[in-house]
From TrEMBL:
Protein name: GNAT family N-acetyltransferase
Organism field: Paenibacillus odorifer
Pfam family, one: Acetyltransf_1
Database matches in PANTHER family: GNAT-FAMILY ACETYLTRANSFERASE (PTHR43415:SF3), SPERMIDINE N(1)-ACETYLTRANSFERASE (PTHR43415)
TM helices/strands, residue ranges: none
Amino acid sequence: MMVTLRELVPEDAGELLRLQHQLDQESKFMLLEPDERQASLCQVKEMLESFLAAETSILIGAEVDDHLAGYLSVRGGSVRRNRHSAYIVIGIQKQYQGNGIGAGLFREMDIWAMNNGIVRLELSVMTHNQAALGLYTKSGFEIEGTKRKSLIVDGEWVDEYYMSKILQKEKRIECQI
């Protein structure tokens, strides 16, 4: 299986929208339910344009056989106090999970983030999503806390972990007393 990772551009809007609808259908771990996604092709194209224009955001796609099989969205802060921080969303088609695509997307994200002044990466994940927790932990994310009753899925309360990864270690200031 040949996987190509690249930054998504406005011309990818149709493929991204198709992938998002498919993920809504096949996974209960994504935020939207199958009938909730209302974005038009034009709106997805505008969103991709906004990602390209933002210094602290990127959308990375994973292509398999010239079709989008997964994506990773990194949306950074827009003001001085939070522009070092970015929130992540990842989605990979079920048939391609477990093949290293997620790890590859995270490696690309780390390189991009370090080159663009991002220090803090954060995400949330349902506490029972063991596959995602394994990927995130392997990629250097740590659980910061639990968002209790964060979501309702199939009429049941679902807790989420809030996770983060710090890319730069803080410098210690040493002084003699």
